[in-house]
Amino acid sequence: MSSIMGKTLHVDLTKGKITEEAGIDEKLWKQYIGGRGLGQKLIWDHIGKPPYSTPDEAREFALSPENRFVIMPGPLTGTPAATSGRFAVCFISPHSGTTSACIAGSRFGMLVKRAGYDAIIIDGKADSPCYLYITDETQEILDASDLWGKTTYETDDILMAKHGKNACVGCIGPAGEKLTPIAVIAHAKDSFAGRTGAGAVWGSKNLKAVVVDGKQKIGRADPDGFKEINRKITSLVLEKPTTGEYLQTRGTIVLMHVENMHGTLGVKNFSETGNLSYEDCQKISGERFWNEFNWGKVACYACPIGCHRKLYINGEFLPQAEYELTWSFGANLGNYDPYVVTKAADLCAKYGIDGISGGNILGYAMESTVKGAHDFGITWGDGEGILRVVEEMGKGEGVGADLRMGVKRCAEKYPETAEYAMHIKGNEIPAYDPRTMAGVDLGYATSPRGADHMKSYMVGCNTLGTQISPKELLERTVLNRDKITFTIGMQHESVFYDSAVLCLFLVLTPVGVEDNAKLFSTATGIEMLPRELIESEERVFNAERLWNVASGFTADDDALPKRFTTEQTPYGGSKGTISRLNKAKKMYYEERGWSKDGVPEPWLTKYLDLDDMRTKLGV
Q: Distance (Å, rounded) from C-alpha 10 to C-alpha 8?
């Protein structure tokens, strides 16, 4: 019995019709793995050639009924595999204009499969607000008029009360309804399909929520073999201090002191990177939250790590902000009040906003204001202002009506602020200053969906250490051919974990491609050799590149904001560093088998069986 369920569910919102369809061909599972890879493949094949030729036209298309949305668990989702409580959602992004795949946790992906489906494919647009109720017995499009305008928390409570405690809700908040480009989809209130505007796509389709439940068994083709390799992988996760201790006890914000010590933590919109004292860092550190505010621990399905936390702070029970949001509303804004950081993240969850982009946008607004470019009415460390503006972004009111659109669009409206807009391809830059780690800058620039640390987790090997050699790869400032090769390897590894779908924290462990190939094979019954898995990872990444090239993106878009290539890091453990992106890109394109214009060479697409895609796209 395979972990692949053998059916997909097609929802046509325009026609108000739901259809069960045959399963996906075995060859495609082997070539695209599932999740991120296969979900996007279902979109690319449906659209054919993009009906647009520029990124801005792509952003407009993304909010049309023609943009397909795919909820895609992976072949390992819902199995006992360590960290298998993950799934992907795929779409053309209204924020970056790229092809995009977001990964989220909770029980949602597992229940999609227990309902009997490998994918839920959503096309068209409903005439009025609706939600989907999907189980192994029922598939319905239901009225959501009474839910429209409600927050994600309110929506989750109402639908869980209606459909039972065993269900799981994915929903959008007011930000998604208003087509905010940084809107997210919230799952079970605490896990988010969080970057590049998935929530806005649902809003454009009048889709408020998807409720899933099911009782079908998710099998394993070789139960004994699966159990053996999963036991090994789980042991490797628990033996590594980062995943077996630090993340377990202090959550993701255990990174706060680590990154500050290295001088890699962005401060005040990256204008003062490294200028954060130990005392200020301690105020928003994992150690402080653990010792003073921790109320409990939350884990995704089948996760031995359990990095989420619940807090009791200032008389409120709140979810702990993850590391990225503690940075974005903390050091990034010159704010070291743990309650403000936590509450800002909670407001993002409530209204359905991407907290990385949200905090980055506020940093842009504060620096623009302080330096006299444009007065957004908020300055460094203004805790009350932070909470006010986050709420305004969620509601689309006040200064938030502009800021919710993202720094790229704001800088186009107010060109005098352009130098303070920290984004790549429209997607706001996350916590790590790309000047301070060779490979991180390259990963940001060449990510298929704009600035993104999760599509090449070079942060880990640069500041946390991994089981790699030679030691030179661990030295943050080294830029050589080996570092380029390692960056590519990390991009490919993220493809596997995003497609299987497992947690990306596994890249911090000694789990290798042989282990992953065996896990896939024993779960699905589809034999996957290590070399074949590497080819599949490379195929997905290059297919994403082909799509983006056909969408009008060029090598010039693989770029960093000017600050990172012209100004040295001013303070701290990485003082004096600067990105050498142009040199890195040249080596990277050569190593990848791409032309000087950043396009995969014909021999490469032939080798990866992407010639048909290339021909259809006209690349």
A: 7
